[in-house]
Automatic annotation (TrEMBL):
Enzyme nomenclature, EC number: 4.1.1.48
UniProt KW Amino-acid biosynthesis keyword: yes
Keywords tagged on the record: Amino-acid biosynthesis, Aromatic amino acid biosynthesis, Decarboxylase, Lyase, Tryptophan biosynthesis
Record-given protein name: Indole-3-glycerol phosphate synthase
Underlying gene: trpC
Domain of life where this protein originates: Bacteria
Entries under Pfam families matching the protein: IGPS
GO MF annotation terms: indole-3-glycerol-phosphate synthase activity
Domain Indole-3-glycerol phosphate synthase positions: 3-254
Amino acid sequence: MILDQIAADTRLRVEAKKKEISLEEVKRDTQSMEKNTGFPFETALRKPDLSFICEVKKASPSKGIIAEEFPYLQIAKEYDEAGADAISCLTEPKYFLGKDEYLKEIAKEVKIPVLRKDFVVDEYQIYEAKILGASAVLLICAILEEEQLKVYLQIAKELGLSALVEAHDEKEIKQAVRAGAKIIGVNNRNLKDFSVNVGNSTNLRNFVPPEILFVAESGIKGPEDIAALRKNKVDAVLIGETMMRSPDKAKMLRFLKGEEHHEES
Ligand SMILES: O=P(O)(O)OC[C@@H](O)[C@@H](O)c1c[nH]c2ccccc12
């Protein structure tokens, strides 16, 4: 299964990083950092209207290369100017061709909060996210034990980071709720076989209590998808490929919101 493979590779990557900079060192580095005031990622999602999280992603295992040319900083700035509420930035290098530097530079450059999109299997990566300037981390239920998830949520909280806890089915949502997640994302893409069903997040909407923020992730292509998610009282959407492939981010965002009738001019 691809997810297990990515998680295993990530463990190796983290072990190698620890040899260069130890866990103690990254912990110490976060201690000397300015304390965050509030949780900007969570705040960005907690508004009456639907929030948009736009993703900076060069490639993925299901789609291959999405952006041959990849002016990541410019893309992030365009998302910010287009009115995105937050940015998701892939840092996983092998399968998504992400880089820590992308996140670091983007977080410095934009006003909106940035989520570190990676496969967290070690607390090391949460401290690292903080150092890179992220406002939030992704925690994927399918690769974490419930106890681990609880511990990681606590570490993130202490660092002033929000956590988007990703679930794919009812069982994982229940785990996320028990572990104390404040933001739950339901992935419409099954990471076991890459099949996409935008109905997955609407079907599972009611398993998440209303005080927990609900994010619909993946496979969102057009205003009909957004309208259906709005109707189901989703708090936020996470959109990657559709935004990445669009030459005019502001226009695409208006199109998705139903404010613009044509995708292309
Ligand atoms: O490009 P899409 O289909 O709009 O999907 C974005 C995002 O949801 C997807 O990249 C994603 C969702 N969960 C993940 C976990 C790891 C890596 C990537 C992801």
